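Consider the following assembly input.
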Amino acid sequence: AQKITQTQPGMFVQEKEAVTLDCTYDTSDQSYGLFWYKQPSSGEMIFLIYQGSYDEQNATEGRYSLNFQKARKSANLVISASQLGDSAMYFCAMRDVYNQGGKLIFGQGTELSVKP
Amino acid sequence: DTAVSQTPKYLVTQMGNDKSIKCEQNLGHDTMYWYKQDSKKFLKIMFSYNNKELIINETVPNRFSPKSPDKAHLNLHINSLELGDSAVYFCASRPLGNRETQYFGPGTRLLVL
């Protein structure tokens, strides 16, 4: 069975500094996708970044980058130059490419607080 | 132009009542989902429909019944509401393509008293 683990319930970071949010996953599938979502206090789910299991390069989207280490089964999110608006819950999620209807399996989430 | 919309946004009701949450997407996606986010913020898949056909039913109690009248709509009906049903329910849709994200609705906050 697939599983996502986020071991940091809460994180603090100073404004303008970089922060890494940890995510490890467990799957026996060869083809899968990894996602990060942001959920601000307003509640909506905002897609941030995607990494495919066969992607050779780490994904980047603006200030977000994904540190993908396949052998270690980790997909950490790096946010550079943190902003006050980055304060939110962050969820790592995984999807099996071929099976299970494309459902997302989520981690427990990490609550990030950015200090001015 | 809301991509995935849900109604109502908030729902407060008594234990034992029956309620429905509606979801509509105007993105032309074939696949739609219902997720439940509990009080600890944990998100879990409940159901998935592909072109009006049920493809995922994740051991959800029979009191929950999804209905998809067409591929743009996926409604969730809940019978005999219990305190433990209090949660945020998210509808989502997804286009074809392995790299595609799911597009989430704004969520419906259900409180059962």
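The mean pLDDT of chain B is 93. Ask yourself how this observation constrains the way the partners meet.
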